[in-house]
Amino acid sequence: MSVENGIGASVRRKEDQRFITGNGHYLDDMNRAGQAYGYFLRSPYAFAKIKNIDLSAAKSAPGVVDIFTGADMVADGIGGLICGWGITSKDGSPHKAPPHNSMAVDAVRHVGDQVAFVIAETLEQAKNAAELIEVGYEVLTPVTNIAKALAPGAPQIHEEAPGNLCYDWELGDKAAVDAAFANAAHVSKIDLVNNRLSPNPMEPRAALGEYDAGSGELTLHTTSQNPHVARLIMSAFLGIAPENKLRVVAPDVGGGFGSKIFVYAEETTTIWAARKINRPVKWTADRSEAFLTDAHGRDHVTHAELATDNDGKILAFRVSTKANMGAYLSTFASAVPTYLYGTLLSGQYKIPSIYCEVQAGFTNTTPVDAYRGAGRPEATYVVERMMDTAAKDLKMDPTEFRLKNFIQPDAYPYETPVIMTYDSGDYPLAMNLAKEMIDYNGFAARKAQSEANGKLRGIGVAAYIEACGIAPSAAVGSLGAGVGLWESAEVRFNPTGSVTVFTGSHSHGQGHETTFAQIIADKLGVPIDSVEVVHGDTSKVPFGMGTYGSRSLAVGGSAIVKAVDKIVEKSKKIAAHLMEASVEDIEHEHGVFSVAGTDKKLTMGEIAFAAYVPHNYPADLEPGMAENAFYDPLNFTFPAGTHIAEVEIDPATGVVDIVDWAAADDFGNVINPMIVEGQVHGGVAQGIGQALLEGVIYDEESGQLLTGSYMDYCMPRADDLPNFRVATTNTPCPSNPLGVKGCGEAGAIAGPAALMNAIVNAIGKDIDMPATPEKVWRAINSN
Amino acid sequence: MYSFDYERPSGVNEAASAIGEDDKFLAGGQTLIPTLKLRLAQPGKLVDLSGISELKGISVNGSELSVGAMTRHVDVADSADVKSAIPALAQLASHIGDAQVRNRGTIGGSISNNDPAADYPAALVGLGATVHTNKRSISAEDFFVDLFETALEDGELVTKVTFPIPEKAGYAKFPNPASRFALTGVFVAKTASGVRVAVTGAGPCVFRQTDMEAALSSNFSPDAVSGIKTEASGLNADIHASADYRANLITVMAARAVKAAS
Ligand SMILES: Cc1cc2nc3c(=O)[nH]c(=O)nc-3n(C[C@H](O)[C@H](O)[C@H](O)COP(=O)(O)OP(=O)(O)OC[C@H]3O[C@@H](n4cnc5c(N)ncnc54)[C@H](O)[C@@H]3O)c2cc1C
């Protein structure tokens, strides 16, 4: 029996009605009585000492309520922002996490660093007053490039981090790798830059702080992907208010892509200031501020080498990466180039030994942290560009080389040399499917046709793997995480049979209100329109860890299933009582409870009603029908697959036209195929953006951000994208009850490598992302 | 934005007398409003031209096409008159920015702003158009002076642009991938007074490529220009493209414009 709108149905997203009719509840639309407006004066310099700040003229400007600086927050005992993942260097020393105050105290370290918070009756008045603040700066020479920042003689950004080094980390068996390389028949090498990206969610960050002097409660509405984590950090580390007096609400949030995981200076300042002035304060970033202050992504420089034997078998892999952390360590920044990166360097391949070392350093740039894929796109990019390079060196077809080295479907659980245990998958299946979808074997003929038209044609493969469902708490704890990464849920029946599901995960575009409702519909037979999904409010939902790392369904969905199991267990007892049968004889399917071998049955709705009106009820059972659960995953999940891109290039201009794209992804079981396909489209679009169009550029001399608006920072648009061929291969995940693996990041992980391999294949030369027309043109015309 | 006064006159003379030294005309606002929002300009008053009906509209008078200053890009792109008289001009207008920009932006605003990457300057210079103001008539080549600089005096108002109708014309634009302005755009026209080739986006201001004009005068075909290089020195270089690449684009776009000419 299948259920209407249950698991596997492409149900239209319930939340879209409100989003597309302008009835969403986004932060900047919220206003409170007596609300004042906050505006940040930001540093115009990349690196400078602050000698003095004169607020006198600004404070007496029309409409000004108050103006605060970093010194005021420090004087109030407010702590700095933290990094929640401790990385240990090769020499055993902990990573360097220099102080990170919400507003600068004695120095500014990137353009856009917060200097003062001006609060006025209107935003324009706050901006006018900010222009009257006089800051005495002693301008210092900045450094923005990571290789230069880590080189001797670079400007010293933080006293606490000599040589600008945050950590020098390693993973894997160096001696084994060196030995394998020493005896290898072939060694292939590659140098790569993983370009820095600006996350660009549609809704800029915003915060609304309120203080209730009566109850002493603070309420912060903020654009967060994980409001409980934000509350925890603000309470435990900044000392804004105890957790029981601080409510954090993340309402409808218009996209995040990781950038709204982090606890930012602006939200901590806004909520702190609301109490100081005892009035609601609202701050909303404009797009220029978003470019300057939303944590960026990627920014790696990597050298990699692969050792192979004469049969084209991989022997060992060696990777050395420099990662740019920006001016301060953002909330999870340290984990991205280490445990979310080095651990994925085995890709889909049987590689006997791997060694990876990562030096992370500080620069005078916006902090860098997780962005869609977070570490895994960087790993896939290294692995998959490397595989193509090696295949070329060995004169093998890149898919044959990969198929030869894949971990085979019967090899699970498979332990990689970089501490992951892959649980399931079928890599050859996905690759062969993608090849078939794009007619890989017909490529030569298409290439000849392009050549006849004066065009270059290329095809590129990326066989990616990611570790999602983040994450088993004990495992991440042993690797330095400061938190557990379980998830919470409550499934609460109302007396009339409708259901409210509370989840600790957070939807900022992913479609949880639909997917999670489908689980309830499937398991308990409740129509999806009778299921409400509540998330994002610390005063409503149990403590949860939020949404990132493609974890919501695998971890949050599993918590919901656990709560559903408890509901079913209790309902069986009630059903047995009402139908005068023994509990063992009660059978349950999709919300219908029947007595085995009879036609007696009760629906979930009838049982829920009985639980709330327990006139005829088991004596030893609590009334009510609400259960909560916490789920801590047993392992990561390992979505994997193959994407193949095909391009045609105009040699006269270097313009790359993506003519075809095939994506064969193994996401485990799929709850809503339409939403999954949308996630693949969006992810690939961002992957294409990284490969062709996007890139944050700083002026190396002044440290100014040169790509500070859409006039200069190029986001992908519909006409930059091809039609996608999308298919899934579904090997169920063995470690969670839904058998799901996660799909939110796959496209952004596979995309850049597939596309760059296609371009390199077409032009016969290595180039770095973004492959702008000029870069491609220069490569074609260089010798 | 800083606060300012606002006036919406209904005639050209009224507008001319309303404008003061620190004031600005407001046309489609597609350049001016973002500038105000970023607090990069602080006009005392905006004199909104949208109420002046004589500034709007398109007409053909014999050998001349006339476009009023307040005519929006979308109206030029969609005009049957423009499409039949100078199809390349309609095509050019249809590729300015995006639909929202074309629904508000005007030809008068575009040329008065003289963004080095704007499309219209190429058409005006390429076709040998005349810019009419409330005071005088100025040839296109004299009108566009330098980067964001025109021959307009303070308070001078563009009223319309007249284009001699060419035998054939074509425009090829290589859009900046981010802004979609012209990284390089080349307008080619075969006119009664000879062949003209105007280049926008590549230099600080629109300019004529005379070597190409000479070559096309004897042989109006893509091959005639595909070997002609432009000196890169003096061309724009920025994060989007080097001067060398822009020089290459001039050649490629010129050949494509000739091929597309109709
Ligand atoms: C996202 C975006 C993309 C764009 N892409 C392109 C593109 O691809 N190609 C392109 O060419 N342009 C592009 N533009 C610019 C667009 O064409 C603008 O419309 C144009 O630059 C200004 O026209 P406007 O009518 O909006 O003028 P406004 O912004 O109102 O005014 C611009 C300036 O001209 C002055 N002015 C206006 N009218 C007159 C007049 N009649 N007489 C004297 N002075 C006057 C104003 O005082 C002001 O200084 C783009 C703009 C945006 C926002």
TrEMBL record, chain A:
Boundaries of every Aldehyde oxidase/xanthine dehydrogenase a/b hammerhead domain copy: 21-141
GO MF annotations, alphabetized: iron ion binding; oxidoreductase activity
Family matches, as InterPro entries: Ald_Oxase/Xan_DH_a/b (IPR000674), Ald_Oxase/Xan_DH_a/b_sf (IPR036856), Ald_Oxase/xanthine_DH-like (IPR016208), AldOxase/xan_DH_MoCoBD1 (IPR008274), AldOxase/xan_DH_MoCoBD2 (IPR046867), AldOxase/xan_DH_Mopterin-bd_sf (IPR037165)
Keywords from the named record: Molybdenum, Oxidoreductase
Protein name: Molybdopterin-dependent oxidoreductase
PANTHER family hit by this protein: ALDEHYDE OXIDASE 1-RELATED (PTHR11908:SF132), XANTHINE DEHYDROGENASE (PTHR11908)
Domain of life per record: Bacteria
Transmembrane segments: none
TrEMBL record, chain B:
Keyword annotations: FAD, Flavoprotein, Oxidoreductase
Keyword presence, DNA-binding: no
FAD-binding PCMH-type domain sequence ranges: 1-168
Any GO molecular function: oxidoreductase activity
InterPro entries reported in the protein's UniProt record: CO_DH_flav_C, CO_DH_flav_C_dom_sf, Diverse_Substr_Oxidored, FAD-bd_PCMH, FAD-bd_PCMH-like_sf, FAD-bd_PCMH_sub1, FAD-bd_PCMH_sub2, Mopterin_DH_FAD-bd
One Pfam family in the UniProt entry: FAD_binding_5
PROSITE patterns: FAD_PCMH
Coiled-coil ranges from the UniProt annotation: none
Spans traversing the lipid bilayer: none
The keyword Nuclease belongs to this UniProt entry's keyword annotation: no
Protein name per its UniProtKB record: Carbon monoxide dehydrogenase
Protein species of origin: Sneathiella chungangensis
